[in-house]
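Hello again,

I reread your note about wanting to compare the complex against the isolated chains. To keep things tidy I'm splitting this into two emails, and this first one only covers the full assembly. Below are the input lines as submitted, including protein chains and any nucleic acid or small-molecule components. They are followed by the predicted structure of everything together. The single-chain runs will come separately.
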Amino acid sequence: MEEKEISKAVIRRLPRYYRYLGELMESGVERISSNELSERMRVTASQIRQDLNNFGGFGQQGYGYNVKYLYDEIGRLLGLDKKHNVIIIGGGNLGQALANYPAFEKRGFIVKGIFDINPKLSGRTVRGIPIMPMEQMEEFIRENDIQIATLTLPKTSATEVADQLISYGVRAIWNFAHTDLNVPEGVMVENVHLSESIMRLSYNLTRYEEEHKSGKKEKK
Amino acid sequence: MEEKEISKAVIRRLPRYYRYLGELMESGVERISSNELSERMRVTASQIRQDLNNFGGFGQQGYGYNVKYLYDEIGRLLGLDKKHNVIIIGGGNLGQALANYPAFEKRGFIVKGIFDINPKLSGRTVRGIPIMPMEQMEEFIRENDIQIATLTLPKTSATEVADQLISYGVRAIWNFAHTDLNVPEGVMVENVHLSESIMRLSYNLTRYEEEHKSGKKEKK
DNA sequence: TAGATTGTTAATCGATTAACAATC
DNA sequence: TAGATTGTTAATCGATTAACAATC
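Full-complex prediction:
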């Protein structure tokens, strides 16, 4: 009845909670209070409690949170309790690097195939994953229950390929191309714009240098 | 006198403005109003005007914004008018993929060297960029005016290596390792946590599926 | 039970949007 | 000049933090 819409800001933080809880588990910590966690993560305890309460009462008064339980619950929210079949479009350096990344498999993201316009790459494999020509994409998606497509190709072809992918039934696009995709309702896009990321770093570096240039500038 | 602190949200948007303005330039557009740009970028015109005004009056009443001028100004803010020397720590797949990325060079980010703990990689090159052993890092940083270090190595060594880099004078870290870095004031960190990114995608996909499962669920 | 800590409401802060006077 | 569009102030919205009653 009451659809409590969860804000993007909260969702953005979920994977980070998951990471910290995983580390706590590894070091054998069984329970943790929002206060302790807040010190480790450098966020307020209030925010932690607010965030978690969006999804239900995961804690217990007077006790705190059970680390394993909370870890599993957040994992479930993030869809990490299920396998997701992934394809990578674009078999260049970045595409191959992602295909080679074992950590994704551990979290349930299984790379099933790589597609590239370059016919010379066809037939090769990366970590046992076949590189195939674009023509086989549709059949492959339909037959292998592919939910997520990773776009590691030039922006010039990204839009067109994304449209194809969606028409073949892909519901989620992990977009590394330097362009924004317009997708219909019900299709998810997560952008990784690396060039924008390094520009933000460059901005901060430049601002800092400007403010501190010519040695130590005395503050009046 | 009045230090107008610019919010992180604004800075996050700057590179995207830059991208759109670059595309407008390429297609020969000379001027644009906040209204037109807002339609293309799917943000409000009000936000565009507010954002840009943080940095000064880039527009002109009755006319709008000169595309080339605005592009250059934002580029300058982002520090793209200067060259930045970059090293990559970790010569694995991702490190090599970034080294191979020509778009960075175009923006003034010059990869000068790659460092890896694996001595077998030493002496090899990627796109003419030498891979060197970690022992040479300090000297290389000091002699080549390195400002930015890219961390593409396992989280287990990331913290330690970051500390080293900072002590050698690196002021900005582009962190791809799955961990948060604690750095002193004056050192910039930009995180690219790919596993968190794909988890957000997975979250949205999973939520959407839950809401629409068992075919079309009628809404009362 | 007493102490601890959550869940949750209320207060504050910041960011976005709307409105319009300034001005090209 | 009249029309267009910015720069900027005010209003709204949303997110974070503080506070505390509920409860384990």
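For quick reference: The two ends of chain B are 59 Å apart (CA to CA).

B.
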